What does this fold into?
Amino acid sequence: LVKIKVGGSTFSKSIKIETVKPNRMKMIFDVSESDIIPYNQPKDIALQVDWLHGAPAQNAKVVIDATMRAAQTVFKGFEGYVFDDPAKTFEPEEFTLFDGRVDAKGKTMVHVAFDNVANAPGMVNVQLRTRAFDAGGDFSTDRFIIKYSPYESYVGLKIPEGEGWNNALFSNESNIVPLALVDQYGKPISGNVKIEIFSIYWRWWWDASDQNDLAQYISNSYQNLLHSETVTVKNGKLMYDMDLGIEHWGRKYLRVTHLESGHSAGQTFYTTYKGWWSNASSENPGGAEMLQFE
It folds into this structure.
């Protein structure tokens, strides 16, 4: 019972307090966070459940609930590259991975297999909430994280910093954008990559949003595809020459997609163009320019 006294008034409220019991069993999952569950390749992982005093938890019931969340995709040797697509929406997914018992030695094999994960922006972290139950119904719990690859290969990009305001690139000159293409283990491969460049117009309701949901914005009716082409990446790398060939300012989104695996990655950037100030001054001798918001 909790009582609060304010001036001459007294308020009371009954509050239930949940008793948190300490673990009586420990769980050893034979996997590390650096391990990757490959695309379309199920794996059996050993699980050992013991009492804290060391004896195996014979025939204990075990339930493993899994939660999938998007992870940052990185590969050694490709530091600075972006391998995720923020224009894809991926909601956390929960499901029961295992519901069974260990044997008389406290051991069991957990079959880890995931269906195709739709619309994943890149690699996925799978958090495993593992509960081991004793005969009285109480349980001990632990959490493990494994990484799952929903694609066989990954494409990445690294947009350079420009000389304009907010590192804007000049739209009317050549800009070299490094591209990368690797398999799910980070080994360079060759393949065809689709390139798309979108113009993202400024909207007060989008910038004012706390979420800045690029995925929703780029898929709505305001998207504007400026350029699209297919290039061939050989041995994992390509220096892509991006030249819009127009005088264009504002925010852009560059998306690259590996046509074989379906994985895509993207980055936002800003563009301006050389000579914009002199053009504005010639059209407006007073030197003032009215900003136009689309």
